[in-house]
Amino acid sequence: MDYKQLIKQIDKKQMPKHIAIIMDGNGRWADEHNTKRVNGHKEGVKAVRRIVETAVEAGLEYLTVYAFSTENWRRSKQEVNYLLKLIMDSLIKEIDDLKANNVNIKFIGSKEELEKSYNKKVLSTCRSSWDNDGLHLNIAMNYGGRRELIDAFKKMSDDIISGKIKKERINDEMVSNYLYTAYMPDPDLIIRTSGEERLSNFLVWQSAYSEFWFTKTLWPDFSREEFIQAILDFQDRKRRFGSR
Ligand code: FPP
Prior knowledge:
Structural class: alpha/beta
Bound molecules: farnesyl diphosphate
CATH class: Alpha Beta
Radius of gyration: 18 Å
């Protein structure tokens, strides 16, 4: 069925607020097509565009995509440089259009190793999109869930020492608001492509009650229809958040 027809089947009252995606399988897609890994990543960018567009059409509030993890630095220098440049070049091309479509764009992750990689225009357009109230698109760059927690612990201990917060008042909500995703809802649904079924250090704190949806489809082949199918499947699940 065409994805526009599938969107009509979504029950707006049961719509997930936040979907997070582990986009996996670009390298295997390239192997299957007898081409270089970089071409798998290029196709991966096209899939990102397709899914962002579909998320806007479906009226999703938050979409987080895992673009570059703290572990990705272990790949060859050549692949790392290619990936970082590809991500920035794609954003340079798309960012004005995203902003014009009322998308609110943020990077989540550690800025530390990436100072030189960020393009100034991309950063300023992102900042100027923060009043947009359409889709909130989080691009996880140099993101690691444990690194995020460590960064939060450091900030919290500074704030305890300076007296800004009291140790006794630390609770779930306060911890959440020290994370890169501060003041955002936790992901209701986490999608991972390519047949791997693990979290790989993604949204470690935020995924405590998330539903998971795994597919064998490789990321460059992930379609609009499959994305909407994942939402429809989520709507059939009963979430208990620990109660009966
Ligand atoms: C996994 O494939 C994918 C990545 C490491 C990066 C994904 C990045 C993009 C698709 C770039 C676009 C992002 C934006 C926001 C423009 P893999 O290389 O791990 O595949 P494999 O496991 O098959 O080797």
